[in-house]
Amino acid sequence: MFSKSASSVFTKARLSKAIFNKKSSSVGSPISYQKSKISSTSSINQDLFRAVYPVLPGELTAHLQLKTGQVFTGGSFGSNTASMGEAVFTTSLVGYPESMTDPSYKGQILIFTQPLIGNYGVPSRERDEFGLLKHFESEQIQCSGIVVSDYCTKYSHWNAVESLGEWCQRSGIPAITGVDTRSLVHLLRGQGSTLGALNTGNEKLDIGEEVQWFDPTSGNLVDQVSIKSPKVYNPNGSVNIGLIDCGVKNNIIRLLCKSNARVTLLPWDYDFVPLLDQFDGLFISNGPGSPSFCDTTVKNLQKTFEIYNRPIFGICMGNQLLGLAGGFNVYKLPYGNRGHNQPVIDLETSKCVITSQNHGFALDDSVVPDGWLRSFMNANDGSNEGIRHSTKPFYSVQFHPEAMGGPLDTMYMIRRFVNDVIAHKDVEWRASEAQLFDTQLGAEESNKLQMALQ
């Protein structure tokens, strides 16, 4: 049993019996999961993963336990509460405010491989000219908890307004320090991502008696983070882009607006097909969890393919949804690709770029449907990092070209997409003007006039 104070907070937290007794949903038929079985870790010395680190005076004790049986004990610097989620790790060296507020981390306990976390604190909630938070990728922390090796209690940065611990406490997010994250990551790389439970108190959670294991990713996480009704940003932009919100990051919207686009943010399940004429281009955003729950989006995209000839660009979850609509399958990666230092090969130029990534699923490009091409490949594991249509301006990437927080190698892709939208709109305008001239002047006079205008 855990302490009385932790218990009272725990009762108010997400981990109610009703929630944890909820049965997992089945995965949709378009998804074909792991290509191979994850290797067993039975040969690993389990005592290695039971290390107890000293808890500093005044600190609460915190526990991270995995469904596979391993327990890590350390100090708590977050909220005095408990949560469950898929335990995943990120190799990002910086950018913890951006990562923690990335909607793609919804339902996950985030483990930082960078040993020292919290040294530059947390910035203010300042907003830009588009009404977006400057330093965060959404309005709140999205992950279920964080795990670090060494939490820096004394932060120092010119724009910091509070510590990481204060931010977590204010947001109701549990956080643990003093964990041997190196051995933890070795464990997850060996056996794959697994469910984790994070709590404060003298004892770990008694899972099986008071609570049951529950996988937040077994539900539709995209629906939880997507906007509920359409919203317009930068209404005076020169082109109108329909942005399908599966869990969009703020910097995607910002970069589109800065490229002089009017951005119409649409819920993930919004029926945008009757409105396609209003959009000069479509953008499919990133998002959390399994793409199998976004069947409505996939069906809308399939209808769009039949009648739409303007640019479509997808990133991360958008890559998977565009691929599913095009006939690809999707499978779950053993432990995902997450971090700001993932190498990707451009299959057209053979150039390697360093990318920001956060995904647990990937397109199966071992069989490429007719009309589609592979465009990018992960240099580490060979998984798909992008596709494009062979004749239509439809393309997507698995990584994050908006690069918040870094690197900047592929940020040009956002601008390139907007330029493609502008170019297609110009071509359509010229074609409509030519048709008007033909109707009013006749083919011969129309041709003379168009030659003169050029």
TrEMBL record:
Database matches in SUPFAM superfamilies: Carbamoyl phosphate synthetase, small subunit N-terminal domain, Class I glutamine amidotransferase-like
Keywords for this protein: ATP-binding, Glutamine amidotransferase, Ligase, Nucleotide-binding
Catalytic activity: L-glutamine + H2O = L-glutamate + NH4(+); hydrogencarbonate + L-glutamine + 2 ATP + H2O = carbamoyl phosphate + L-glutamate + 2 ADP + phosphate + 2 H(+)
Leading EC class: ligase
Parts of the chain that traverse the membrane: none
The Carbamoyl-phosphate synthase small subunit N-terminal domain, residue ranges: 60-199
Subunit note: Heterodimer composed of 2 chains; the small (or glutamine) chain promotes the hydrolysis of glutamine to ammonia, which is used by the large (or ammonia) chain to synthesize carbamoyl phosphate.
Name of the featured protein: Carbamoyl phosphate synthase arginine-specific small chain
Lineage of origin: Eukaryota, Fungi, Fungi incertae sedis, Zoopagomycota, Kickxellomycotina
